UniProtKB/TrEMBL annotation:
Belongs to the RNA methyltransferase TrmD family. Specifically methylates guanosine-37 in various tRNAs. It comes from the Bacteria. The keyword Transferase applies. The gene is trmD. NCBIfam families: PRK00026.1, trmD. This is tRNA (guanine-N(1)-)-methyltransferase. Keywords: Cytoplasm, Methyltransferase, S-adenosyl-L-methionine, Transferase, tRNA processing. S-adenosyl-L-methionine binds at G113, I133, G134, D135, Y136, V137, L138. It catalyses: guanosine(37) in tRNA + S-adenosyl-L-methionine = N(1)-methylguanosine(37) in tRNA + S-adenosyl-L-homocysteine + H(+). One of its GO terms (cellular component) is cytosol. It is an enzyme of class 2 (transferase). Homodimer. It comes from Arenimonas oryziterrae DSM 21050 = YC6267.
Length: 254
């Protein structure tokens, strides 16, 4: 997969593509990340990439011309068809399902805004999809682009080795992840659920599934809304809820 990123901070993008699982995916040739700086396509002596907003008000807006010229150069750098994405709070929320969808594409071109954002006419003409990483305001789209590069890069076939496989990921099937425990010099196995020490893999898988369902019910009930659980999951969740309510009652009157 190829990802081109338009950013006034190309070094930051390069850095993101050199670390961890993403860096390894690039080394393995599974992913290419190419930054492009719109300022390199500014034509005036001051290499301006922004100007004051029509209608007045605070802040600056990114000029359409350097962005269009930069995007044209990025497009021309590969024959692979590209989906052009703008990272902004006005975008659709990034989800694991969206990450899987993007990871299956041959190429993304991501545009990182700075200042108040981009001239709307550039967005209307050039952007295929707007994505948001959350309902808060960043000083630039680079961190959001880095999130997409990581979420999509690690889903490239061969990016994760077995131990790291994406199968067990949170949200892999729309549920939160179960708790994890490992060896600890100081804690030993204190507080570790006995089932995890039982070696009974069927029981361990059942416990992990029940924890995923239960924690999703407790922490993100919105993820269960409109979702029909199969009989097995419904029974697991009902058992978890009963235990939870029993503990809550016991806690109320010890
Ligand atoms: C953002 C977000 C975000 C808005 C103005 C960049 C900033 C500045 N991008 N998800 N939340 N972008 O806050 O994606 O140009």
């Amino acid at each position: 997969m190829r990802i081109d990123v338009l950013s006034l901070f190309p070094d930051f993008i390069r850095q993101c593509a050199q670390v961890g699982v993403v860096g390894r995916a690039v080394e393995r040739g599974l992913l290419t990340v190419e930054p492009w700086n719109p300022r390199d396509f500014a034509t005036d002596n001051y290499r301006r990439v922004d100007d004051r907003p029509f209608g007045g008000g605070p802040g600056m807006v990114m000029l359409p011309e350097p962005l269009s010229a930069c995007l044209a150069a990025a497009r021309a750098a590969s024959a692979l068809p590209a989906r052009v994405i703008y990272l902004s709070p006005q975008g659709k929320p990034l989800t694991q399902a969206k990450a899987r969808e993007l990871a299956a594409l041959p190429r993304l071109v991501m545009v990182c805004g700075r200042y108040e954002g981009l001239d709307e006419r550039f967005i209307e003409k050039e952007i295929d999809e707007e994505l948001s990483i959350g309902d808060y305001v960043l000083s630039g789209g680079e961190l959001a682009a880095a999130v997409v590069i990581d979420a999509v890069g690690r889903l490239q076939a061969g990016a994760l080795n077995d131990a790291e496989s994406a199968e067990q990921d949170s949200f892999e099937d729309g549920l939160l992840d179960c708790p994890h425990y490992t060896r600890s010099e100081s804690l030993g196995t204190e507080g570790v659920p006995a089932v995890l020490l039982s070696g009974d893999h069927a029981k361990i898988a059942r416990w992990r599934r029940q924890q995923s369902l239960g924690r999703t019910w407790l922490r993100r009930p919105d993820l269960l809304e409109g979702r029909v659980l199969d009989k097995k999951d419904a029974a697991l969740l009902a058992e978890f809820q009963a235990e939870w309510q029993a503990q809550a009652k016991k806690a109320e009157n010890p």
